[in-house]
Amino acid sequence: MLSLRRALRKGGRVVYSILALPVSLFYGAVITLRNWLYDKGWLPTYKVPCTVVSIGNLTLGGSGKTPFALFLLEWLSEQGIAAAYLSRGYGRQTKGFAEVSLQSPQAIRLYGDEPCLVKKRFPQLPVAVAEDRVKGAQELLIRYPHLQVLVLDDAYQHRRIHRDLNVLLIDMQRPIWKDWLFPLGRLREPLNAYRRANLIVLNKKSSPSDHKRLWFQVPTLSFEYVAQALIPARAEKDALSLQTLRYRSVIAFCGIAHPESFFTTLRQAEAYIVRYLEFPDHYLYKESDLLRIRKEYRRYEQRLGIKDLLLLTTEKDLIRVEEAGLLHLLDELPLYAVRIAMLPQNPKAATQLLHHFFGNLLKK
Predict the structure, then answer these.
(1) Successive 10-residue mean pLDDT values, the chain, 364 residues
(2) For residue 70, with 0-12 CB atoms within 10 Å meaning exposed, 13-18 middle and 19 or more buried, which class applies?
(3) Distance (Å, rounded) from C-alpha 316 to C-alpha 227?
(4) Rounded Cα–Cα distance for residues 5 and 16 (Å)
(5) How far apart, in whole angstroms, are the C-alpha atoms of residue 278 and residue 263?
(6) Rg, Å, the chain Cα set
(7) What does DSSP assign to residue 303?
(8) Which domains does the chain have, with CATH numbers?
(9) Model pTM greater than 0.85?
(10) Is the peptide bond before 183 cis (omega within 30 degrees of 0)?
């Protein structure tokens, strides 16, 4: 019976590949033509009066774009450079330009979870959403004419706006050279589109030393995920150090593109995950979801006799729970968000490159 199931699955994959191949080839031809038209200048590109940094990838799904944007925004702030963040606001239920305000009711639905996370981490910086990055950038510069740098999240394919620094992220757990064009694979563009990048960031996540040295024709940096602290769901509680997780039993839940990277980070901190719950990417939690999470927590705490059990999630998921007005359902539980940062494996090389790219601003 098991062999039959395997044969059926394999047969299904073969049939899908046969059907997807012509669609993938046609899709690739359309994208190649579009890129050629931009390269030749036959499709217009608009420049705005500030330094524009685009952060993106070649694949569908997450690759660390927002964590890298947080790293870059922090570095720019430390250098005294006036920066702003502009995103499409994936998953929001609104259209057009909007500046993010966390005081707005249902902020997640208005702006999306990633812009809300950036605004929460950097409340002093302008954060906005707009499908049209050109109009969004122009509106931000009208409101904040002193802006020096505009950071665009997930804009590698949004070629209508001129960018001074094009950053391409590659998830080394799912490298682009082992993938295929959509719908046969997850690639948004052919592999040679990496040449548009001015900087390539290899996101090595949980396996920073497992990959051979790679060579590109553009500057390349290696980054990895680093868990930094446990942020309490309630402000009256204190943050916990990462050492708290060592040999600690935890229940973890998240709704992100690649949940395994989150769970692997917890295991690297030597936490013992007794139960994990996965939800779709950018998931908007409902009351039934939180009741289910609470039930699972109580089940493992009481029936299995686990003491000091922690309930962990990501910062993005915690924001979605808060904005849904459902945090009270988990009030009595020790709920924490794991703060994870993307940090360069070679800080000196990263600093040198950033000074090279933004040197003209640092002199002012």
Answers:
(1) 49 67 88 94 96 93 85 96 94 92 90 94 96 96 97 95 95 83 88 93 66 70 90 90 91 90 89 94 92 94 84 94 89 93 93 91 64
(2) buried
(3) 14
(4) 16
(5) 10
(6) 22
(7) I
(8) 51-204+345-362 (3.40.50), 226-342 (3.40.50)
(9) yes
(10) yes
